[in-house]
Amino acid sequence: MPLTTAEKRATFRKLHGSGCFVIPNPWDIGSAQALQHMGFKALASTSAGFAWSIGKADNRVTLDEVCAHLTALCSATDLPVNADFESGFAQEPEQVGANVARAVRTGIAGLSIEDSTGDKDKPLYERALGIERIKAARAAIDADTSGVLLVGRCEGFLVGQADLAMVIDRLQAYAEAGADCLYAPGIRTKEQISAVVKAVDPKPVNLLLGWPGLSVAEAAELGVRRISVGGSLARAAWGGFMRAAQEIAEKGTFTELGNGYAGGELNKMFG
């Protein structure tokens, strides 16, 4: 029988207790079901991958679109789903909390809140406001005892503020504000990763790996609890699509189509 939402959430929390697991990022129902078929234990949505799938740029989707997408993903798989909830689709803590409460009702097992503003001149929320936003998300999750896991993200390395001390300070503050898991996308070196892990211990750390580099085993040795790939799987899929389509458009040949995954195997997997 399909797992209940409560069972998915309990399973998700248990995964964060020890070891290191990969939480790949599907962008639609088919990719989510394929990842479940491959044996992954949990999934995470990708704001970029989903946006591209509906013909939008990243960070240009609406709250309504994201909640409908999360509902579809959660309904399509027995795996727990962690939501890439961007910056909460609001600035003020009160509205962030209201939006988080809505996201919780989609059936997600986890949810991340970023501290990026989308303003290139002032890319991060002020520290105090960032903390209040995490507190509001925590309160919204706790209001219905949902058990959804809250991830606090500091986007410093992604917005050109690669100050490790600042990022660690914020992650520690977000942990104190109620985040269950901490995330600093963009850190890459073993020294950076190890410093973040130690700084927020015993709370788990999510590591973004969207490029060749560390293996799962190496990340685990550094104390990383979970690994996500962001929009990288979606980019890989788009890479194959664009190469094949451009060859047809520009050369009138069809060589790249020979590299596609076997249709019969796809039918078998989804059958």
From TrEMBL:
<dbReference type="InterPro" id="IPR015813">
    <property type="entry name" value="Pyrv/PenolPyrv_kinase-like_dom"/>
</dbReference>
<dbReference type="InterPro" id="IPR039556">
    <property type="entry name" value="ICL/PEPM"/>
</dbReference>
<protein>
    <submittedName>
        <fullName>2-Methylisocitrate lyase, PEP mutase family</fullName>
    </submittedName>
</protein>
<dbReference type="GO" id="GO:0016829">
    <property type="term" value="F:lyase activity"/>
</dbReference>
<dbReference type="Pfam" id="PF13714">
    <property type="entry name" value="PEP_mutase"/>
</dbReference>
<dbReference type="InterPro" id="IPR040442">
    <property type="entry name" value="Pyrv_kinase-like_dom_sf"/>
</dbReference>
<keyword id="KW-0456">Lyase</keyword>
